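step: validate -> pass
step: tokenize input -> pass
step: predict -> running
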Amino acid sequence: MSANNAHIKRLLATKQCQGGDLRDAHLTRLNLSGADLSGAKLMFANLNGTNLSNANLSGAELSFANFVAADLISSDLSGVDAKGVNFLDAKLNHAQLGGADLVFANLVNTNLEEANLSGASLEGANLIGANLNNTQMNGINLSGANLGHAQIRNANLSNADLSNARLVEADLSDANLSGVNLRNANLLNANLNGANLTGADLTGANLAQAKLDGAIGLYQDNLVGMRPPDRPPASHNHPNMSYVSVLQTNSLHSSSNHLGLPRPGLPS
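step: predict -> pass
step: emit ->
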């Protein structure tokens, strides 16, 4: 079913379309700054390059809509249903996305700096190269998401779910990762300098060549053993315990063992 033409005309004339039917609407490169689209139905709509800065889209249905290169700076997208939405190259800095459903969303190279994603679900989302610096993401679900090369400096990810996430070469320096679930996450070459990992679950995580200078919360009880990258841990060796690979890292050396890590083959 296509969009209601009367609703499109009202939007263009007044920038008001609360709860409107805009499914499949073609709204590319328009100036809709400050528009009220709260609760609107925008499934499969095309808003490529549209200016929606400071717009209200709270509670809107955005599943599979196209927002490529759209300007959504300081917009309100809290509680949106946006499964599979395409935010490639979009500007979402300072946006409100608390509680949003962004499962399998495309956020490649998206600017989310200083946005609020608390409690949002981005399970399986693609965030390669995304800017998440200084972003609020406490309680977020990023299980299975791809954050390769993402910038996540000084972000708040406390109690987030990053299980099975891909964080290869991601910059998480000074990030708050307290209580985060990093089970089976791939942090190869990631930057964790100054990060807070207190209470983090690192079971099965790959931290090979990760930078850990100044990281806190890394204790012997959650750093057990070593394994090569991308190889599942042996089931007979410390099952259900976390580990870190300390080979070729900037701050950990198996020879110095200055964190008191157990040496392979020796009792702790």
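step: describe -> Residues 202 and 242 are 5 Å apart (CA to CA).
step: cleanup -> pass
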